[in-house]
Amino acid sequence: MELKNKKIIEKMTLKEKALMLSGKGMWKTYGFEKYGIPEFFLSDGPHGMRTQEGAGDWLGINKSKAATCFPTAATIANSWDKNLAEEVAGALGKEAVSFGVDMILGPGMNIKRSPLCGRNFEYFSEDPYLAGEMGAAYVKGIQSKGPAACPKHFAVNSQELRRMSNNSVVDERTLREIYTAAFETMVEKSAPKAIMSSYNQINGVYANENQYLLRKLLRDAFGFQGIVVSDWGASNDHVEGVRCGSNLEMPGNSGTTAKELVRAVRAGKLDEKVLDQRIDEILTVMLPVHKRVEQRKKSFDVAAHHKLARHAAAESIVLLKNEDHILPLSSQKKIAVIGEFAEKARYQGAGSSLVNPTKVENSLDLAGKYFSGKITYEPGYHRNQETDQKLVEKAKKAAVEADVVLLFVGLDEASESEGMDRVHMKMPQNQLELINAVAQMNKELIVVVSAGSVVEMPWIKKAKAVLHGYLGGQAGASAMLDVITGKVNPSGKLNETYPICYEDTPAYAYYPGKERNSEYREGVYVGYRYYDTVKKEVLFPFGFGLSYTDFSYSNLKLSDNGVRFCITNVGKIAGAEIAQLYIEKENPAVFRPVHELKGFCKVFVQPGETKEVEISFEDRTFTYFNVQTGKWEIEEGNYKIIIAKNSRAAVLQGKIYRKGTGAENPYKELPDVYQTGHIENITDEAYEKLLGHRIPDGTWKGELEKNDAFCQLYYAKGAVGRLIYWILDKMLKDSEKKGEANLDILFFYNMPFRGLVNTTHGIFTSGMVDGFVKIVNGHILSGLGKMIGAAILRK
Ligand code: BGC
What we know:
The chain is an alpha/beta fold. The chain is built from 25 helices and 28 strands. α5 (128-144) links the parallel β4 and β5 (148-149). α2 packs across α10, α4 (82-98) runs parallel beside α5 (128-144) and α14 (363-370) packs parallel to α17. The longest helix has 23 residues, at 272-294. 57% of the residues are buried. The protein binds beta-D-glucopyranose.
């Protein structure tokens, strides 16, 4: 293929080309001024910029520049508002540009397979349609202001435990319909300039060197024209990565892997033309981006962005319960504000998305502006989860003396973070005890939840109202008070199902997997696709959310291209409604979930007003992915067209006939469990039928390998290995006791040994890692010999 930047590339030496394909340090790429190639600057920022000052480091030890902390992706997804997402992302783009950032590492697009994934707060939904639409809006917003967006992590990266070494074993249909579908929509609708490959293996091959993912899907099927950037430390075999279409290995390792590229070219194992191609792709995308970023404004409007963060948080709050219309709350009431989160907000997640906010609000400071009656405050619990009976007693007293209790609870910082999965779905025990105690004192109880992902709510019957703010960003507190007092009518709806308890979740028996494998045995039955198919009772269905007003639906009109219907605000105050379109195949031959989301719209309606809305059908509205033809096919027959308030509340229904594409059912021998959706106990045999091949052997063969993670040193045969494990584990437990998620330790805990090359910026070579692995396996002398030899030869 003719190179677009031939004139530049033909002047570059082989060594320079090799260097360009890895980072220079933590956040930059190599620049070559003599050829007009600048250094490109990449920075985290799914919900706020984390642009480090001074020397960059992996773990955020160096502070980042003050930036607006917007609500996280999981929060904004509850708004179901693509315009809002685009506006927020536009503001992110402006902040990035003001810091001279060429590429924003986000948004996070992974599917919430299990409520326990520690990074769910950074992801949009359990549903790929919603995630794809919101992701596309983010990419459009970011790129409209100049920088490149780098949606992540491609793909099937739905767990944090052993995230850098696990193998996601997934059948092709599930991969296409669930785990890569959001990426596909986002690529088609917003043309991201970059995409980040994930840490894990997919069916035995690391994402960053996965020909099927990077070539067949991303470029050939989705039409991706941007560049592939490895997640930080996700490059397993750089030569293979470059061959398969990965452009940039991050972070840098002082040229260690560039030497591997040079050696591969010299040995005839890799054609230099492949390097030219990868560089051409980088320059084609990044030179124009950099030009725009260079003409940048060096500041952004801090106050305007704070205001936008507040608006975004308010639009994303979900009203889960409102008995006796206790909300909105009148300002004259005597209020007891209880819960430490009211004084020190829980507003963002932990890990690479951690923002140093321009300011942070808290509900306690602001309450006086909203309520004219007496306000008392009691923290009620300690954030570090320790029970303190004295705090509970004081909270009870405050509750008794007040007209109404506003109780702020949820997940603390140590409960959810990048780098770890939760081990249960419960809220901290000390908070549960507090809720029960306070509820006994005062029935006028309004619970305000802050958490980035799903929690069990065994106390729900005791509360009159429940508002869920997810992680509302730096202005989440005023947004919540706006909703509590009725200044804003809540309109958010859940982007994920709230099951009653963790045991009810579809991946319960399979998550997070054993040893090296993460087996996606539940197939396409993720989230509501499972609960609704098997009619399992849930706490709140997917798409659920209340309002201070009511809406009625009427006048459904179906055409070949889509649906139209009317929404009337039948209440007394203005509000927004999110209408959802689900499709159900009547008597399907090819197994499928009972219904699937295929469209939605959010519309603002004045009291008494009726608005007609339209949702169009799209290419994938009626399709399923056929593993035999390798194509999206339509099964012939009738399809129910369901307009619903949430996945369990249909309000209008019609029927449409679709001519099929004639493909044969590829699943003739599949056991009934997949047809019925009862995927709770999938046997090896059934799973292998779904996969179409044997389950790969994911068990340890006694010895650790360089792709095993530090947390697996638990199995080390050598004392040195076990000692390292013991130290790491102790440090982790100590940090948990302090109530923090220590990302530095978590990072190493989940990092495979090969990650030492990148984390030490090339002080460790691949050969030294091999020596280290020998040592942890108990071969101390030969391991030391290997390490010293490799250190001398720099191999
Ligand atoms: C995370 C990415 C992040 C990168 C750089 C990785 O550990 O998985 O989401 O962009 O670090 O901070």
